Amino acid sequence: xxxxxxxxxxxxxxxxxxxxxxxxxxxxxxxxxxxxxxxxxxxxxxxxxxxxxxxxxxxxxxxxxxxxxxxxxxxxxxxxxxxxxxxx
Length: 88
Description:
The chain is mainly alpha-helical. It contains three helices and two strands, in the order αββαα.
């Protein structure tokens, strides 16, 4: 996981500074370029979500959402067994 922030910092997407509370903690913040990239990615997600939603009837969309929620619940219940901690 440590390589992801390092790569982002190399690309100028995030900056890091030492935590005032703990010497071994780095606080990462988005740079202006990082914020621009995040905003652009978010817009792409909105376009994709609209395209997906528009391709289903309202009933099919509701059914798909319910199936995805059920699948997500099953996966979430399996995570502790696999020794994986939920994120967030």
